[in-house]
Design brief:
CATH architecture of the largest domain: Roll
Number of domains: 2
Oligomer: single chain
Largest sheet: 9 strands, antiparallel
Number of strands: 9
CATH class of the largest domain: Mainly Beta
CATH superfamily of the largest domain: Electron Transport, Fmn-binding Protein, Chain A
Distance between the termini: 27 Å
Number of helices: 5
Structural class: alpha+beta
Order of helices and strands: HEEEEHEEHHHEEE
Radius of gyration: 20 Å
Strand content: 25-35%
Length: 214
């Protein structure tokens, strides 16, 4: 089959200004909860886009681990490619794609590290093998083979037993949004697309909601 002939008509729902929340965080929470209730595979998976100092973009999938009025949180290795890129350029973008619901959420903003206390609390809530894995994997570095990971895991499991501490190179990031976009697929490619942008000119900041052409 010619890949150019693959098409789908989006007809499951609509998104309009009257029915959407004025606060983008509330709209995101509603959609995420609906994705969870619909048993969408890995509804917490999001694509994270960063840009290196040479202006080359890169993307990868990470899992959201928390969100509130402060921003969107995930955890990773600070020495990874994404960590190095965020150290040089703290602006990033996130994207959720819930295929079964014909929905996309895009979020942009500045990224900061969460507090040590937050990183410690989440790290110690993880399964033991995941905590050992944070020590065992030199993320984004070239290794000779899988044996390196297995050997490292065995070494750190023997060293820390049941109480591995959080590695100094591992912790959380929080993206503080200044722009949200909510996309709902519609028939005839006339999709619904609402953007929320932060108006810094208003004291305390205020979200401006506007419709974009698809």
């Amino acid at each position: 089959m010619n890949i150019a002939d693959l098409r789908k008509s989006y007809e499951k729902a609509e998104l309009n200004e009257q029915a959407s929340h004025a606060d983008p965080l509330k709209q995101f929470d509603q959609w995420l909860q609906e994705a969870i209730a619909s048993e969408v595979p890995e509804p917490n998976a999001m694509t994270l886009a960063t840009v290196a100092s040479d202006l080359r973009p890169s993307t990868r999938v990470v899992l959201v681990k928390g969100y509130d009025e402060r921003g969107i949180v995930w955890y990773t290795n600070y020495d990874s490619r994404k960590g190095q890129e965020l150290a040089g350029n703290p602006f990033a973008a996130l994207q959720f794609h819930w295929v079964e619901l014909e929905r996309v959420v895009r979020i942009e903003g500045r990224v900061e590290k969460v507090s040590d206390a937050e990183s410690d609390a989440y790290f110690h809530s993880r399964p033991l093998d995941s905590r050992i894995g944070a020590w065992a994997s030199p993320q984004s570095q070239v290794i000779d083979g899988r044996t390196v990971l297995v050997t490292n895991a065995a070494k750190y499991a023997a060293q820390f037993l049941l109480q591995p501490p959080r590695p100094p190179h591992w912790g959380g990031y929080r993206l503080v949004p200044d722009s949200w976009q909510f996309w709902q697929g519609r028939k005839s490619r006339l999709h619904d697309r609402l953007r929320y942008r932060l108006n810094d000119g208003v004291e305390g900041g205020q979200w401006v909601r506007e419709r974009l052409a698809p």
